Amino acid sequence: MSIILTVNHLTKKFGYLTAVKDLSFTIEKGNVYGILGPNGSGKSTTLGIVLNVVNKTQGDFSWFDGTTTTHQALKKVGAIIERPNFYPYMTAIQNLKLVCKIKEVSESKIEEKLELVGLLDRKNSKFRTYSLGMKQRLAIASALLNDPEILILDEPTNGLDPQGIHQIREIIKKIASQGTTILLASHLLDEVEKVCSHVIILRKGEKLYSGRVDGLLASHGFFELKTNDLEHLKIYLEKHASFGQVKLENGCITAFLKEEMNAGELNKTLFDQGITLSHLVKRKESLEEQFLTLTKNKSN
Amino acid sequence: MVRLLQIEFIKLWNNRASKVLIVSYFVLLCSIALVAAVKFDIGPIQFHLAEQGIFNFPYIWHFNSFITAFFKLFLAIVIVSMMANEYSNKTIKQNLIDGLSKKEFILSKFLTVISFALISTVFVFVVSLILGLFYSDFNEIGIIFSGLEFLLAFFVKLVGFFSFCLFLGILVKRSAFALGFLILWQIFESFIRGIIRWRFFDGETTDMIMGFFPLNAMWNLIKEPFTRLSAVQTAVNQMGEEIVLNYNVHWYEILIVLTWTAVFIYGSYALLKKRDL
């Protein structure tokens, strides 16, 4: 699998503040990556550095295995950072033509990309007349003009209304399904969970985790159980070798698995023990729960 | 290089304010021809400015390049705002992300500055040539094309001044403040001149020292042409005075301005490179 971006021991200091601390990761072709982290965790700074608008303090990064300069590599990248930035007095078409000139690609794709983001009927309106959602969609169209190897999105749904958020997500999914590598920075966990296959989790500029979303916590999920005799069930489960922690909360038992077990198997075993369940759900921790567990563990 | 100019052209020409200013600047350059129309006819006193020798070759090169250089303020506004707007719209960040290198970014602005200066010089050349052919008393080819060093000085003066504006635009990031800073700098130079003259040296040494300051160096390139007019000189001679002035364009003055230009452009690049956007 070809490598698109390698980041090695990257550090960025703003005066006394260390925004990114010794960060390393690689981005491989074809995956959808999420960079997760609370506000101020260094997501945008990291992207700014690899996009050549923020100067690094230490470390290095290379695009496409170091085969090209950063300047040339950026022409094969599509990126949107925070707010969409265009010339307010120019129309969508004029702005995109300018981007084509900068990226040195032909202007033939402008209409196609405007169509993709649903702005074709407003193509001759000035940028300043656009709503925030439209501006963000124009930014995506602009980032796609060169059919990039990788699309970098920094908080693409920030400040949008639910409809706008939905539109942007649909566009991202559509692009991902076409096989474009995507790097999505966000603090919205469900957003990342919905579209990403890999995550990089940052906190205060430090990497907590990078890898597949489902490998984030080596967990086998947990059961939510209800029955008439909760105490009896709890004692049984605590003795059972397959279970780790067992919690009783609000009339519901949550039992965390130490090894793989399916729901039917558990139901049968319990029934044989004379315990009849009124509620049985097997779940994996959501990304949010995993994220919180992870950040909590590291802070202890 | 053409690509960089095209990029800058798209940015400027689609901005109505810039377009109006650029067009009015070039209209003003042509309007120097209107001087020819200045004509008083009050009974016995007949005065026709064009007949007073201001349009004589090679003096016309001096006179026109001196006068038209004042109009450069119009383009200064365009240049300062074209730089500062990139910051206020944050488009500079987007340009860099889209794949323009910092060097290319500065280069595209500098090329625009050169183009403006070049087009202005050609304009002044053409307008002066036409005016001269109409009104000049001397029409030999050798005389017509003598004194063209004033046009070179004009070009260098504009490039230097615009580079200064560019630098201020990057330094200050706000067009209004950058223009304010330009005026402030002018005052600062006069202030320094006053201090040096008052405390340290005589007039001549002061002039020499001031010749190294950017705005003063640009001003020195083309000396005022009025006292060179034969009519004025005659009048002064009658009063028993004599004006001794060296009107020529000196190579070291051009060198000083070119050095400042290099400093400003490199300074802009260094600033851009150092800053986090």
Can you characterise this structure?
The complex is a heterodimer of chains A (300) and B (277). Chain A is built from ten helices and 13 strands. In chain A, strand 8 (198-203) and strand 9 form a beta hairpin. Chain A is α/β, with parallel strands linked by helices. In chain A, helix 4 packs across helix 5 (132-144). In chain A, the strands form three sheets. Chain A has a six-stranded mixed beta sheet with strand order 5-6-7-3-8-9, with helices on both faces. Chain A folds into two domains: 3-215, Rossmann fold; 222-283, 2-Layer Sandwich (Alpha-Beta Plaits). With 277 residues, chain B is mainly α. Chain B has one domain (2-274). Helix content of chain B is 72%, strand content 3%. Chain B is built from 13 helices and two strands. Chain B has a two-stranded antiparallel sheet with strand order 1-2. In chain B, helix 11 (214-221) runs antiparallel to helix 13. The longest helix of chain B has 34 residues, at 102-135. The A-B interface holds A 14, 48, 51-55, 71-72, 74-75, 77, 79, 81, 83, 85-90, 94, 97-99, 101-104, 142 and B 3, 6-7, 10-11, 14-16, 89-91, 93-102, 273-274, 276-277.
Query: How many domain units of chain B?
Result: 1
- Radius of gyration of chain B, taken over Cα atoms and rounded to an integer in Å: 21 Å
Shape of chain A: elongated
For the largest interface in this structure, which chains are involved and how many residues does each contribute? A-B, 30 and 25 residues
User: How many distinct domains of chain A?
Assistant: 2
Cα(first) to Cα(last) distance of chain B is 25 Å
Order of helices and strands of chain A: EEEHEHEHHHEHEHEEEHEEHEH
Shape of chain B: globular
Beta-sheet strand percentage of chain A?
A: 25-35%
Assembly context of the chains: heterodimer
- Per the CATH scheme, the topology name of the largest domain in chain A is Rossmann fold
Number of beta-strand segments of chain A: 13
